[in-house]
Amino acid sequence: MSPKAFRERGYLSLFASYYRPHMALFLLDMICALGIAAVDLSFPQVSRWAMQTLLPDRLFATFFAVMAILILAYVLKAGLSFIVTYWGHLMGVRIEADIRRDLFAHMQTLSFSFYDKNRTGHLMSRVTGDLFEIAELAHHGPEDMFISAVTLLGAFVVMLNMQWKLALAVFVVVPVFLLFSVFQRKRMMRSSTQVKQKLAGINGEVESCISGMRTAKAFANEDTERAKFEAANDRYRNAKRGYYRTMAIYFSGMEFAMGILPVLVIAYGGILIMQGEMDFITLTTFSLYVTTFISPIRKLSAFMEMLMQGTAGFKRFVDLMRLEPEIQDAPDAVELGASAPVAGDIRVEDVTFRYESTSPAVLEGVSLHVHPGETVAVVGPSGGGKSTLCQLIPRFYDVTEGRILLDGWDVRELQQRSLRENIGIVQQDVFLFAGTIYDNIRYGRPDATEEEVIEAARRAEIYEDILEMPDGLNTYVGERGVMLSGGQKQRISIARIFLKNPPILILDEATSALDSVTEHRIQSAFDELAKGRTTLIIAHRLSTIRSANRILVIDGCGIAEEGTHEELLARGGRYAALYEAQRAVAAE
Ligand code: ADP
Questions:
Q1: Using CA positions, which residue lies closest to atom 16 of ligand 1?
Q2: Judging by DSSP bridges, how do beta strands 550-555 and 534-538 pair with one another?
Q3: By the 8 A CB rule, do 354 and 401 touch?
Q4: Is residue 381 lining ligand 1, measured as CB closer than 6 Å?
Q5: How far is CA 58 from CA 54, 65, 67, in A?
Q6: If the chain, 588 residues long, is cut into consecutive pieces of 10 residues, what is the mean pLDDT of each piece?
Q7: 279 close to 160: Cβ distance less than 8 angstroms
Q8: How many Cα atoms sit within 13 Å of 185 on the Cβ side?
Q9: What 3-state DSSP class applies to 382?
Q10: What is the ipTM of this complex?
Q11: pLDDT of residue 403
Q12: Which ligand 1 atom sits closest to the C-alpha of 116?
């Protein structure tokens, strides 16, 4: 479903739409739930009938046959409970998986700006926590409501039939308990949310204390850290106190209700018996019905809580699904490279760019032309907008004013996929996916053969390093994997691009200092990669700058200087100053 379809439908209809593919399981769940309620409701009536009619006539054989049937009924109920618990949860988890699939597919369409504004941790909690609560509601919601309503209603009818005065007395008291239960549960939930919020903060502090252990030791500041840790620990302890108090009130209240209700019934029943309006067996049966009341009351109040959490989670999910991606293909978008091979001619025409409509311009009136096969280096002070410029070419963001042309096409007229397939980007901080080095290199072209992967690793000058690792190409990297140096990660990302083999290249060099051997290897890998491709380099190192055909100096909002290394040095302007400064640092 598109974001538009999500916007046009209400929450309830959207929620119901997730049940549609699992209708068979849903009906099975409901039928079994009905069976469970029926067994619970018939037991007191049947045993009353057996006691009243069979026992006085000493029809013991029939009496025990009826008891055996009741036992069988409870065996059946156990079977039904199994189905409801197992298949019902399965239905819930399938709905959860469907929702998660839709959510992830939608998140993939959202643009960079969305990920700038939303933190990963926050999004993760949506994909895990929220969806779990939705699944619980999807499964328990209809079933709990159904079983509880049927049981309560059924018991009400039966009790009215048996002794209407006693039944009415019970129905005056029960709503009081129900209200108490719902109210207390709500309080419990509120304080549990508070505890969760506090815990998140405390966990953050604890994490910082632990990850800062080395710094603390270096400054001999263990005492300060311990004091901070203990303060966090105390707040953790106190945060839970309020929660446990509401929990204790709730449980003791429910215990009280469970105990007092049968006592009240028996006391008032005693009066009715005194007045000759009722017999002993009816009173016994009646008390049994009173106990069948308690569990639906508990279930209903638990359901209220689940409903609140589940609907809040589902609303957050729907709100996300309703977001329209900021960058979308035009309906008549053109496939780059479909009609002619991609030459790699990049023109930036009078481009102005702001991250937010209200924030200051990062680039203002920038124009440049990179000819096919040319290597252009962009240099300038940090924060000058170099990375931003590079992100506009693959259309990670759209220009605010002006336009960017690729082989004469405005990038907004091209299919994003075809645009990005033709651009290779080596970013400053390389992301490695959890998996082997082999998988991570093959990410550049998932159908590459092992020989091609090895060849790419060789050309990226990383193969020798890989051979020295514990499992070679099959060494596990990413989270909980082998730690790679920044230089190694960059060469892995270069290997990816060798496999991808795009006509256009964007290199965002690492700013962090590299040793001279690593720098040399990265440089020669870059040079090899840049051959025959249009290349835009954000250069921080002298060596890369010198190998460029042309150098652009970006400063403040636009291009301050342009020319070859020699031309710019001769001019003695910003570039010359920057170069001198870098050389002085390098010499040190
Ligand atoms: P450079 O690569 O020259 O160091 P950048 O292009 O990274 O410069 O940054 C230019 C300016 O844009 C900086 O002021 C930076 O704070 C801002 N900026 C960079 N990325 C974002 C973003 N995703 N959202 C908002 N502002 C950003």
A1: 383
A2: unpaired
A3: no
A4: no
A5: 6, 13, 15
A6: 89 92 92 89 85 86 91 94 90 91 91 83 72 84 82 86 87 82 82 76 77 86 87 81 86 83 88 89 84 77 80 87 90 88 92 91 89 90 86 94 94 93 87 90 92 92 88 82 80 91 86 68 81 87 76 80 87 84 75
A7: no
A8: 20
A9: coil
A10: 0.96
A11: 95
A12: 23
Measured in angstroms, how far is the CA atom of residue 383 from the centroid of ligand 1? 6
Strand partners, 538: 378, 508
Return the closest-CA partner of residue 146 out of 36, 25, 33, 43.
33
Q: Which two tokens stand for residue 44?
A: 């007191």
For the domain covering 430-501, report its CATH number.
3.40.50.300
- Residue whose structure tokens are 């029926």: 38
Q: Which CATH superfamily is domain 1-163+306-325 in?
A: ABC transporter type 1, transmembrane domain (1.20.1560.10)
Element of type H or E holding 94: helix 60-109
Closest to 380 in 3D by CA, of 371, 393, 389: 389
* CA 276-261-191 angle, 5° bins: 165
CA 47, CA 202: separation in Å to the nearest integer? 56
401: its two tokens: 């004013």
Q: What six digits make up the tokens of 208?
A: 């910082």
Which residue has the CA at smallest separation from atom 5 of ligand 1?
Answer: 385
- Which residue bears the tokens 């910003």? 574
Domain 337-422+506-588: what homologous superfamily?
A: P-loop containing nucleotide triphosphate hydrolases (3.40.50.300)
3-class SS of residue 559: strand
**Distances in whole angstroms, Cα of residue 378 to Cα of each of 119, 567, 587:** 30, 15, 22
Q: Tell me which of 115, 117, 358, 362 to substitute to probe ligand 1's pocket, judged by most ligand atoms within 8 Å of the beta carbon.
A: 362
